[in-house]
Amino acid sequence: MHGYFYNPNIHPYTEWQKRQSALLQYADAHGLPVIVENGYELEDYLREVVHREAVRCRFCYIMRLRKAARVARKGKFDAFTTTLLVSPYQKHDLIRETGMAIAEEAGIPFYYEDFRSGYREATEISRALGMYRQQYCGCIFSEKERYYKPVRKK
Predict the structure, then answer these.
(1) pTM exceeds cut of 0.85
(2) 11: part of which helix (H) or strand (E)?
(3) What is the mean pLDDT of residues 53-63?
């Protein structure tokens, strides 16, 4: 088993760095090999979702799962999957549908399992380990939704 870090959707760059660093520290402490995609490809993500903001998750999932499938196939792994499957905030039906379609396209199986039942335990473990915990999915749009609260006119 290997981890894989490819997150062109994460904004700002300092958030991307924190997430990558947290993964690498955890992986190093637990002997988990990690493949890290070099470069911060925010522009590629933005080109995919511009004028599609309402359905941005679909394009984000496609981009990230397609890249993971290619890496898995090239590395001769048995399958590919995503840590998004532990989050109760992600669109599981869309992830599964996207993963299965990309599996067919790439010629490598997508491993789907609903890991949401382990979310609370994973959260407790990450807190106990002092790991960095993000407050939004990572994209500029979710960052806005998380922090920007417009003042309503009366």
Answers:
(1) yes
(2) none
(3) 96
In single-letter form, the type of residue at position 12 comes to: P
Check residue 10 and give its pLDDT. 96
The SS3 of residue 126 is: helix
Using alpha carbons, list the distances in angstroms from residue 1 to 46, 81, 108: 30, 11, 15
Return the bridge partners of 35, or none. Answer: 4
Give the residue extent of every domain in the chain.
Answer: 3-147
| pLDDT, mean of residues 106-117 | 97
- Which of helix, strand or coil describes residue 1? coil
Q: How far apart are CA 83 and CA 14, in angstroms?
A: 21
Could you give the count of Cα atoms lying within 13 Å of 39 in the half-sphere of its Cβ?
Answer: 5
**Which helix (H) or strand (E) element contains residue 111?**
none
Q: How far apart are CA 44 and CA 107, in angstroms?
A: 24
User: Are 98 and 58 a contacting pair, CB within 8 Å?
Assistant: yes
